[in-house]
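The data layer described in this paper is built around a simple, fixed record for each protein. Because each token names a local backbone shape, the row as a whole describes the fold. We quote a single record here, exactly as it is kept in our systems:

***
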Amino acid sequence: MKKGILIIVLSVLLSGLTAYAIVKSAAPTPDAAQQNVYSSDGQTVRTVNLSLSDYPDFTYAAENAVEAVVYVKVTIKSQQQQQYIDPFFRFFFGDEGMGGMGGRERQGSGSGVIIRPDGYIVTNNHVVSGATSIEVTLNNNKTYEATVIGTDPATDVALIKIDATGLPVLQFADSDKLRLGEWVLAIGSPLGEELRSTITAGIVSAKGRSMPSNTREFKIESFIQTDAAVNPGNSGGALVNKEGELVGINTAIVSTTGSYTGYSFAVPSNIVQKVVSDLIDFGSVKRAMLGITGGTIDDRVAKEYKLSVSEGVYVTEVVKGGAADKAGMKSGDVIMAIDGTKIVTMPDLQAKVNNFHPGDHATVEVLRDGKTLTMPVTFSDGNVANGTVGSDGTVTFYGAQLKEVENGVLIVSAGNGKVARAGGEDGFVIRFVNDQKVTKPQDVIDIAKKSKRSIFIEGVDRNGRPGYFGFGKDE
């Protein structure tokens, strides 16, 4: 009798344990969650269990990358009336940081990324532009005075240096390998020193983005767009991947309020790496020139020129004697790829060409009359000859890059030649050359060619004030 009762008890116990095990295996673990998957009509299709291991772990990337991101504080002594600031960049400093009347010292701040253990730090040009002093604070609270090694307004990249060694660094990643939807972290100092070393997460929303701008400055834009939250002070900070590698430098947002509204933009690491390498090696950026003018193909362009493709860069003009001309490119060609990298828009082309130096070789794929042609190209130097037209449409004039605007000819970049040495500055609009009115870069070139001794240029600076400078042709 007792033996029978014992058998019954054991059977009940085993049945209970088996049922518990079945329920336990089916139920989500404490570190898991359930998610219903629905059909388009709203009916539940199935329920899945999601473990915390299904979500990305940013701890390694965050804890390591944050050590190489610095706080940058700048002092600017205004010598002029308030300058015009692109509203997409204004939010990084605010009106107090960017405005002001002549002679007043003002403070601004941003972020930076240590890229070499001997003190080289990359940040944005607009963070340090016009600074009379720069102070860098590391994540360990040590503070150093910094000097500017070089800047590149076209990409909004700047390189500064502090006197220190053995610093933590961020390694560059290949930004071309970023994929849409990939997780990234934004690290910087939003809203100033009180929120130093703030980390936010998001995904890559788009690549190759350009932004509308109210300024007339030439820019090379092929931004990484993310939804990682950035705010004032993040400018110049790091955008890193899950491995803690640098994939971009946070630069701007699109916002009607001056605060983050879901869209942030970063300069890709491949562009940054090339710019800072040039600044270290040469003191300035050595830009390759393809020697074409053109534009992004869309439906309107495709219909107008009866093209069989709806993406790529349509070539409207090829500069005689330029790299594209020597390679055999013609007006009407469509640039589809460079060295195997697909070209969809003009920003794609600008970004890709910007990775090369004058004299570098590449293979360009073009579409002509429905056939794909492969052309070997040797890039030229836009500073070699007056009148050279770059892939961005700017025209070279004594080391400067010119572009037609509504009221004259804009000095997009003064460069390092005679124009810059004579006092020409980025943003200056040329209206007269040797007392003759000019409306396009070729006017400037033609008048200068006819001059026997000197070239006298009149116009207005970026603030609208009259100005002038001159230089001798044979200096």
In short: DSSP finds eleven helices and 29 strands in the chain. Confidence is low (pLDDT under 50) at residues 5-10, 17-30, 79-102. The domain at 288-381 is CATH 2.30.42.10 (Pdz3 Domain).
